[in-house]
Amino acid sequence: MNRFMREFIQTTGELLESEQVRMMGRWNHHGPISTLDHSLFVAYLSFRAARALGLDERAAARGGLLHDLYLYDSKDKSAHPGWQCFDHPRAAARNAEQLTELSDKERNIILSHMWPLGGPLPRSLEAWLVDLVDTICAGLEVSRIYHPARLRKRLGVQPLAAVPG
Ligand SMILES: [Fe+2]
Ligand SMILES: [Fe+2]
Q1: Which of the four, 18, 56, 78, 153, has the lowest number of CB atoms within 10 Å?
Q2: Which residues are CB-contacts of 65 (< 8 A; sequence separation ≥ 6)?
Q3: 7 Cα to the center of ligand 2, angstroms
């Protein structure tokens, strides 16, 4: 583990250990990639990019980690009211709110991450950054260029197993 990874863990510490975040390992997001692996990938790259650009690295890391905390199977039509593209950022913000105290910036990062497809406009450079990093990570995952489970293992994050039955 490198210095950046240790600092990322310090920044997101209690979130990484939470049941809600580790529960994202139960559902797949892009093909065979779990929502947990994708969210860690987005959070870590956003953290690194925010640092390189002199932005708020804590908001970028936390917003990135929680942006897809919707906690249901996106293929299950009964799990959310309408179109996943619109619904999941709102569900993620609601769940994140219960888990930790979100700043206004962090809340907007979560709600705006699907812009321009859905949700409000990104209102900070960090929100624009996470929106862009999310798109890049999704591209790398879908094209199988990078499998972020490698990063999760290096960070030592354990997915929470599904409850049997
Ligand atoms: Fe998303
Ligand atoms: Fe995402």
Answers
A1: 78
A2: 12, 15, 16, 21, 39, 40, 42, 43
A3: 22
Say which DSSP state 29 is in.
Answer: E
- Residue 127 CA to ligand 1 center (angstroms) comes to 13
Instruction: Find the DSSP H helices in the chain.
Output: 3-17, 19-23, 35-53, 57-66, 84-99, 104-111, 125-142, 149-155
Query: For residues 1 and 66, which has the higher predicted lDDT (pLDDT)?
Result: 66
Q: Mean pLDDT across the stretch 1-25?
A: 96
Whole-number Å distance, alpha carbon 114 to ligand 1 midpoint, is 6
Contact 37, 152 (CB under 8 A): yes
| Averaged pLDDT, 83-89 | 84
Distance 67 CA to ligand 2 centre (A): 6
| Distance from the alpha carbon of residue 104 to the mean position of ligand 1, in angstroms | 18
